[in-house]
């Protein structure tokens, strides 16, 4: 892939997912509001910088491509794998590590994704991380805030400056300089690394495992009728234990999450089926919404528009393409 400096804005998660490389990601909007995603990206081939801003609250379920390693600089607080991550934190995501992160604040993060071969060639301590697969509680570094702020300030300047118009050789030199600056900033942050931030209590690990097990059960069966009681029984726990786990890890109750998941999937289907002649009624029934009036109210409350408006927008976009 050629070197690309892009600044994109998306109105839905499907468009955003198509823009990603090296990620297998699903997202569920959790709180009311009109979705707006800003994504600035510099793709240097083996190093990808991506600055992501969006609101409202959402849950991301992700897995990394095994050939890549990711660092995240969080400028806004999040709950990652059941751990509260404060603003201006620095964490890692190991290859193939299944993770989830939820934010109930406007999202502001910088993702630094590096091919593992490049990490290995950069030497210690970066090469030491290339094959490291830490548990989530080992992946948050108590880093020097000055180094983090310097890294963020440099990327803010980078994304606000147009890529120079130059020859192919000069462009290659520019990309090489960017790659070297990324390496230097990572070394500055990791060079001040203290012990990984531990979990505050053992019960948080158990609650995260329970919430993750529930999410795995929900995904394949969301088209059918899934209840909190049935989910808890299938996992061999009480409904109260399941609720505690969801509140600790995701920040919402399992009932609210199940509703948000169904509404998000219905929204996706309205966009997909719209050009093919789908209807709001068919999509609502497919996702276990028996009361069309209540479905429309819940949908509009979460997404800021009626399902018929989503369907109309999908058809208009198809005919204009």
UniProtKB/TrEMBL annotation:
One Pfam family hit: HTH_18
Keyword annotations from UniProtKB, A to Z: DNA-binding, Transcription, Transcription regulation
Superkingdom of source: Bacteria
GO MF entries: DNA-binding transcription factor activity; sequence-specific DNA binding
HTH araC/xylS-type domain residues: 212-313
Record has Lyase as a keyword: no
PROSITE patterns assigned to the protein according to its UniProt record, in alphabetical order: HTH_ARAC_FAMILY_2 (PS01124)
Protein name (record): AraC family transcriptional regulator
The organism of origin for this protein: Vineibacter terrae
């Amino acid at each position: 892939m050629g070197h690309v400096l892009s600044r994109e804005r998306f109105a839905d998660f499907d468009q955003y997912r198509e823009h990603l490389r090296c990620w297998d990601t699903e997202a569920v909007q959790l709180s009311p509001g009109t979705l707006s995603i800003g994504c600035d990206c510099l793709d240097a081939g083996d190093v990808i910088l991506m600055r992501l801003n969006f609101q409202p609250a959402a849950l991301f379920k992700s897995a990394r491509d095994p050939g890549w390693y990711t660092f995240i600089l969080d400028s806004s607080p999040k709950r990652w794998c059941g751990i509260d991550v404060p603003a201006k934190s620095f964490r890692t995501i190991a290859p193939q590590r299944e993770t989830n992160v939820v934010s109930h604040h406007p999202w502001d993060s910088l993702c630094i994704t590096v091919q593992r071969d490049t990490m290995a060639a950069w030497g210690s301590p970066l090469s030491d991380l290339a094959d490291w697969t830490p548990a989530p509680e080992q992946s948050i570094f108590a880093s020097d805030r000055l180094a983090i702020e310097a890294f963020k300030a440099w990327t803010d300047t980078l994304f606000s400056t147009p890529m120079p118009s130059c020859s192919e050789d000069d462009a290659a030199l520019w990309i090489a300089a960017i790659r070297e600056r990324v390496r230097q900033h990572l070394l500055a942050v990791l060079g001040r690394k203290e012990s990984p931030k531990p979990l505050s209590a053992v019960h948080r690990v158990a609650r995260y495992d329970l919430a993750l097990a529930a999410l795995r059960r929900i995904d394949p069966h969301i088209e059918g009728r899934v209840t909190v009681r049935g989910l808890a029984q299938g996992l061999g726990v009480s409904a109260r234990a399941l609720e505690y786990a969801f509140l600790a890890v995701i920040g919402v109750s399992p009932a609210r999450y199940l509703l948000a998941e169904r509404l998000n999937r219905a929204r996706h289907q309205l966009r997909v089926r719209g050009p093919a002649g789908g209807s709001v009624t068919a999509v609502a029934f497919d996702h276990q919404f028996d009361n069309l009036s209540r479905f429309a109210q819940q949908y509009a409350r979460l997404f800021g528009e009626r399902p018929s408006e989503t369907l109309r927008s999908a058809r208009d976009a198809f005919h204009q393409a």
